[in-house]
Amino acid sequence: MNPKDIKFFRQFFREYVKKFYSDAEIDAQIKINMKLKQAHTYLVYRNILFLSKSLNLKEEEINLAKAIALFHDIGNEKDLFFCRLLRDADKIDIFRVWIDYFERKSGYDPSYGMDLSVSNECSVHIISDILANKISPLEKVKTYNDIKLLLLTWIYDVHFDASLNLILKRKYIREIFKILPKNKEIEKVCEHINFYISER
User: Fold this and answer.
1) For residue range 59-85, what is the model confidence (pLDDT) as tens digits?
2) 92 and 112 in contact (C-beta within 8 Å)?
3) CB-based contacts of 162: which residues, under 8 Å, 6+ apart?
Protein backbone atom coordinates (compact mmCIF):
# COMPACT_ATOMS: atom_id res chain seq x y z
CA MET A 1 0.00 0.00 0.00
CA ASN A 2 1.41 3.38 -1.00
CA PRO A 3 0.63 7.10 -0.46
CA LYS A 4 -1.50 7.21 -3.63
CA ASP A 5 -3.75 4.53 -2.16
CA ILE A 6 -4.15 6.55 1.04
CA LYS A 7 -5.03 9.66 -0.97
CA PHE A 8 -7.70 7.68 -2.81
CA PHE A 9 -9.10 6.25 0.44
CA ARG A 10 -9.27 9.69 2.04
CA GLN A 11 -11.23 11.00 -0.93
CA PHE A 12 -13.53 7.96 -0.81
CA PHE A 13 -14.20 8.56 2.88
CA ARG A 14 -15.03 12.23 2.26
CA GLU A 15 -17.53 11.24 -0.43
CA TYR A 16 -18.99 8.54 1.81
CA VAL A 17 -19.65 11.04 4.60
CA LYS A 18 -20.91 13.72 2.21
CA LYS A 19 -23.84 11.51 1.22
CA PHE A 20 -25.23 11.72 4.75
CA TYR A 21 -25.11 15.51 4.79
CA SER A 22 -26.94 15.86 1.47
CA ASP A 23 -29.78 13.42 2.23
CA ALA A 24 -32.81 15.48 3.30
CA GLU A 25 -34.55 12.43 4.80
CA ILE A 26 -31.85 11.80 7.39
CA ASP A 27 -32.63 13.04 10.92
CA ALA A 28 -30.79 16.20 12.03
CA GLN A 29 -29.33 14.48 15.10
CA ILE A 30 -27.91 11.72 12.92
CA LYS A 31 -26.24 14.36 10.77
CA ILE A 32 -24.73 15.94 13.87
CA ASN A 33 -23.48 12.52 14.93
CA MET A 34 -22.05 11.95 11.47
CA LYS A 35 -20.06 15.17 11.76
CA LEU A 36 -18.57 13.86 14.98
CA LYS A 37 -17.93 10.50 13.32
CA GLN A 38 -16.02 12.28 10.56
CA ALA A 39 -13.97 14.33 13.03
CA HIS A 40 -13.44 11.25 15.19
CA THR A 41 -12.18 9.24 12.22
CA TYR A 42 -9.63 11.89 11.28
CA LEU A 43 -8.40 12.08 14.87
CA VAL A 44 -8.15 8.28 15.06
CA TYR A 45 -6.16 8.58 11.83
CA ARG A 46 -3.84 11.07 13.52
CA ASN A 47 -3.51 8.91 16.63
CA ILE A 48 -2.73 5.78 14.67
CA LEU A 49 -0.10 7.66 12.65
CA PHE A 50 1.56 8.79 15.88
CA LEU A 51 1.46 5.29 17.37
CA SER A 52 2.74 3.66 14.18
CA LYS A 53 5.74 5.97 14.07
CA SER A 54 6.37 5.43 17.79
CA LEU A 55 6.49 1.69 17.10
CA ASN A 56 8.93 2.24 14.20
CA LEU A 57 6.69 0.55 11.65
CA LYS A 58 7.74 0.39 8.03
CA GLU A 59 6.18 2.86 5.58
CA GLU A 60 3.95 0.18 4.05
CA GLU A 61 2.72 -0.83 7.51
CA ILE A 62 2.05 2.80 8.40
CA ASN A 63 0.01 3.22 5.23
CA LEU A 64 -1.97 0.10 6.08
CA ALA A 65 -2.63 1.48 9.56
CA LYS A 66 -3.84 4.76 8.02
CA ALA A 67 -6.28 2.89 5.77
CA ILE A 68 -7.62 0.87 8.69
CA ALA A 69 -8.15 4.07 10.68
CA LEU A 70 -10.17 5.64 7.87
CA PHE A 71 -12.54 2.68 7.66
CA HIS A 72 -12.52 1.45 11.24
CA ASP A 73 -16.20 2.30 11.78
CA ILE A 74 -17.39 0.80 8.50
CA GLY A 75 -15.24 -2.28 8.14
CA ASN A 76 -13.59 -5.18 9.96
CA GLU A 77 -9.88 -5.78 10.53
CA LYS A 78 -8.48 -9.29 10.79
CA ASP A 79 -4.87 -8.65 11.60
CA LEU A 80 -4.46 -8.80 15.39
CA PHE A 81 -1.60 -6.31 15.59
CA PHE A 82 -3.38 -3.69 13.55
CA CYS A 83 -6.62 -4.36 15.41
CA ARG A 84 -4.83 -3.57 18.65
CA LEU A 85 -3.22 -0.50 17.15
CA LEU A 86 -6.59 0.69 15.90
CA ARG A 87 -8.37 0.03 19.18
CA ASP A 88 -5.80 2.08 21.04
CA ALA A 89 -6.08 4.96 18.57
CA ASP A 90 -9.87 4.76 18.79
CA LYS A 91 -9.91 4.79 22.59
CA ILE A 92 -7.56 7.77 22.70
CA ASP A 93 -9.97 9.89 20.70
CA ILE A 94 -13.03 8.66 22.59
CA PHE A 95 -11.35 9.99 25.73
CA ARG A 96 -11.24 13.37 23.98
CA VAL A 97 -14.87 13.17 22.84
CA TRP A 98 -16.20 12.54 26.35
CA ILE A 99 -13.95 15.04 28.09
CA ASP A 100 -14.90 17.73 25.58
CA TYR A 101 -18.55 16.99 26.27
CA PHE A 102 -18.21 17.06 30.05
CA GLU A 103 -16.12 20.23 30.10
CA ARG A 104 -17.75 22.21 27.31
CA LYS A 105 -21.17 20.61 26.77
CA SER A 106 -20.60 20.78 23.03
CA GLY A 107 -23.46 20.35 20.56
CA TYR A 108 -22.78 16.65 20.17
CA ASP A 109 -23.91 14.42 23.03
CA PRO A 110 -21.98 11.11 23.00
CA SER A 111 -24.50 9.72 25.50
CA TYR A 112 -27.35 10.12 22.99
CA GLY A 113 -29.70 7.17 23.45
CA MET A 114 -27.99 5.86 26.60
CA ASP A 115 -30.56 7.31 29.06
CA LEU A 116 -27.96 8.12 31.72
CA SER A 117 -28.89 9.54 35.11
CA VAL A 118 -27.48 12.91 36.23
CA SER A 119 -27.19 11.52 39.76
CA ASN A 120 -23.90 12.26 41.50
CA GLU A 121 -23.56 8.59 42.45
CA CYS A 122 -20.73 6.37 41.26
CA SER A 123 -21.13 2.67 40.64
CA VAL A 124 -19.51 0.57 43.35
CA HIS A 125 -19.21 -2.19 40.76
CA ILE A 126 -17.10 -0.08 38.41
CA ILE A 127 -14.98 1.16 41.30
CA SER A 128 -14.40 -2.47 42.29
CA ASP A 129 -13.36 -3.25 38.73
CA ILE A 130 -10.87 -0.39 38.75
CA LEU A 131 -9.33 -1.57 42.01
CA ALA A 132 -9.10 -5.09 40.55
CA ASN A 133 -7.43 -3.84 37.33
CA LYS A 134 -10.44 -4.95 35.31
CA ILE A 135 -12.28 -3.37 32.39
CA SER A 136 -15.91 -2.59 33.17
CA PRO A 137 -18.62 -3.52 30.68
CA LEU A 138 -20.95 -0.79 29.44
CA GLU A 139 -23.87 -2.60 31.08
CA LYS A 140 -22.68 -1.39 34.49
CA VAL A 141 -22.98 2.26 33.48
CA LYS A 142 -26.03 4.04 34.91
CA THR A 143 -24.86 7.63 35.46
CA TYR A 144 -22.58 10.17 33.81
CA ASN A 145 -20.08 9.62 36.61
CA ASP A 146 -20.09 5.94 35.73
CA ILE A 147 -19.00 6.85 32.19
CA LYS A 148 -16.05 8.76 33.63
CA LEU A 149 -15.09 5.74 35.74
CA LEU A 150 -15.55 3.42 32.77
CA LEU A 151 -13.07 5.50 30.79
CA LEU A 152 -10.54 5.05 33.58
CA THR A 153 -10.81 1.26 33.26
CA TRP A 154 -9.65 1.58 29.66
CA ILE A 155 -6.06 2.10 30.76
CA TYR A 156 -6.09 -1.64 31.48
CA ASP A 157 -6.96 -2.25 27.84
CA VAL A 158 -4.38 -0.18 25.95
CA HIS A 159 -1.92 -2.44 24.21
CA PHE A 160 1.09 -0.22 23.68
CA ASP A 161 3.15 1.95 26.00
CA ALA A 162 3.01 4.66 23.34
CA SER A 163 -0.77 4.67 23.70
CA LEU A 164 -0.67 5.14 27.46
CA ASN A 165 2.01 7.80 27.08
CA LEU A 166 -0.19 9.72 24.64
CA ILE A 167 -3.17 9.50 27.00
CA LEU A 168 -1.00 10.88 29.79
CA LYS A 169 0.56 13.53 27.57
CA ARG A 170 -2.89 14.84 26.69
CA LYS A 171 -3.80 14.77 30.40
CA TYR A 172 -7.00 12.80 29.85
CA ILE A 173 -6.73 10.88 33.14
CA ARG A 174 -6.13 14.05 35.11
CA GLU A 175 -9.06 15.77 33.42
CA ILE A 176 -11.40 12.90 34.32
CA PHE A 177 -10.44 13.07 37.97
CA LYS A 178 -11.05 16.83 37.93
CA ILE A 179 -14.70 16.25 36.98
CA LEU A 180 -15.39 13.32 39.31
CA PRO A 181 -16.87 13.81 42.81
CA LYS A 182 -14.40 14.54 45.59
CA ASN A 183 -14.74 11.73 48.14
CA LYS A 184 -12.73 8.92 49.73
CA GLU A 185 -13.76 6.34 47.15
CA ILE A 186 -12.55 8.48 44.26
CA GLU A 187 -9.34 9.31 46.15
CA LYS A 188 -8.72 5.59 46.48
CA VAL A 189 -9.38 5.11 42.77
CA CYS A 190 -6.99 7.95 41.94
CA GLU A 191 -4.23 6.46 44.08
CA HIS A 192 -4.73 3.05 42.50
CA ILE A 193 -4.70 4.37 38.94
CA ASN A 194 -1.58 6.43 39.55
CA PHE A 195 0.18 3.44 41.11
CA TYR A 196 -0.79 1.23 38.17
CA ILE A 197 0.56 3.77 35.70
CA SER A 198 3.82 4.16 37.62
CA GLU A 199 4.34 0.38 37.71
CA ARG A 200 3.40 -0.39 34.12
Assistant:
1) 999 999 998 888 887 644 445 677 788
2) no
3) 50, 51, 54, 55
